[in-house]
Amino acid sequence: MPEWLNALPKAELHLHLEGSLEPELLFALAERNQIALPWADVETLRSAYAFNNLQEFLDLYYAGANVLRTEQDFYDLTWAYLQRCKAQNVIHVEPFFDPQTHTDRGIPFEVVLRGIQQALVDGEKQLGISHGLILSFLRHLPEEEAFKTLEQAMPFRDAFIGVGLDSSEKGFPPRLFERVFAKARSEGLHAVAHAGEEGPPEYIWEALDLLKIKRIDHGVRAIEDERLMQRIIDEQIPLTVCPLSNIKLCVFEHMGQHNILEMLERGVKVTVNSDDPAYFGGYVGENFATLHEHLGMTEVQAKRLAQNSLDARLA
Ligand SMILES: Nc1ncnc2[nH]cnc12
Ligand SMILES: [Zn+2]
Predict the structure, then answer these.
(1) Which ligand is closest in space to the CA of residue 95?
(2) Whole-structure pTM value
(3) Judging by DSSP bridges, how do beta strands 96-97 and 134-138 pair with one another?
(4) Segment 2-42, tens digit of pLDDT
(5) What is the CA radius of gyration of the chain?
(6) What residues are paired with 191 via a beta bridge?
(7) According to the model, what pLDDT value does residue 48 have?
(8) Residue 1, pLDDT score
(9) 22 catalytic residue (yes or no)
(10) 76 lines ligand 1 (CB under 6 A)
């Protein structure tokens, strides 16, 4: 990665902590927790990281998360991510975590939260990286389950800045979560949601109008709807775009087709993020680097993208 790209101060606003679980740490945690794995070794697991769509990735991502059991595991996961951030001049993070992925396996909510939170606090003190944590609901599960998760989270209200919506997009439109998002907002939480990754522009409209989100996660399919594009530009609603993820999950066939710079030039407040870096081939720095390499991103454009990420912070 060019040093000038690495040196740019940036924020990461779209990162799933569970998606930062590198195969090496996954195997180490499996050994520590005495869990048998279906993969022979790190290389075999890494070679399984070939996906035709979002669902194929999610199946492996949820399987991988099974090694996370103790508060120390969640601490180690988060700490490893923060060290990557430090090395790439990421000065602020607003990561997601998916409580239901863990509570549905019998891991208490507070075990997950305390491990993550302690690492974030240490990251602020020892690495100088500020943070705002986002609790994300799994949209393939019923809204009732999201309500239960929000209830579990409320005793720890101060540990979060907002709620998000992730997992399988197609067939699970934002409107299904209108009531739980209203409840979260009434508690003073910010709202964000994955929309327009695989799903149609209508899902982005719903996320804006019904969930009243402050930022759109992905949102690359907004370009198919001119009226939506105008709104996003007029209202300067940030998009947290994840280039390497979009290629790995076949949202675009190859990086040369990615629309992030076209959006930037049209005045959309786009940002660069890694989504699930352990699975998609790189952290935020590598995502910037691929735009430089394959789309000819200039230094001026890179600076605007980095500044957008700092401007689009919610914490
Ligand atoms: N890219 C993505 N889209 C939806 N849900 C996710 N969970 C983790 N990564 C995701
Ligand atoms: Zn995501």
Answers:
(1) 2
(2) 0.98
(3) parallel
(4) 999 999 999 999 999 999 999 999 999 999 999 999 999 99
(5) 18
(6) 163
(7) 97
(8) 87
(9) no
(10) no
Range of the domain at 291: 3-312
- Answer whether residue 175 shows pLDDT above 90: yes
Q: Do 284 and 12 form a contact (C-beta atoms < 8 A)?
A: yes
Query: Does the C-beta of 22 come closer than 6 Å to ligand 1?
Result: no
3-state secondary structure 7-26: HCCEEECCEEHHHHCCHHHH
User: Is residue 116 within 8 Å of residue 74, measured between CB atoms?
Assistant: yes
Rounded Cα–Cα distance for residues 32 and 24 (Å): 12
Q: Are 239 and 219 in contact (CB under 8 A)?
A: yes
Which one of the listed residues 94, 197, 198, 206 is annotated catalytic? 197
Average pLDDT, the chain: 98
Taking the C-alpha atoms of residue 201 and residue 136, their distance in angstroms, rounded to an integer, is 21
Ligand 1 touching residue 54 (CB < 6 A): yes
Residue 218 has pLDDT above 90, yes or no: yes
Ligand sitting nearest the alpha carbon of 97: 1
Judge contact between 128 and 91, C-beta under 8 A. Answer: yes
17: CATH: 3.20.20.140
Domain tally, the chain: 1
166 Cα–ligand 1 center, Å: 6
The pLDDT of residue 170: 97
Q: Are strands 130-131 and 96-97 parallel, antiparallel or unpaired?
A: unpaired
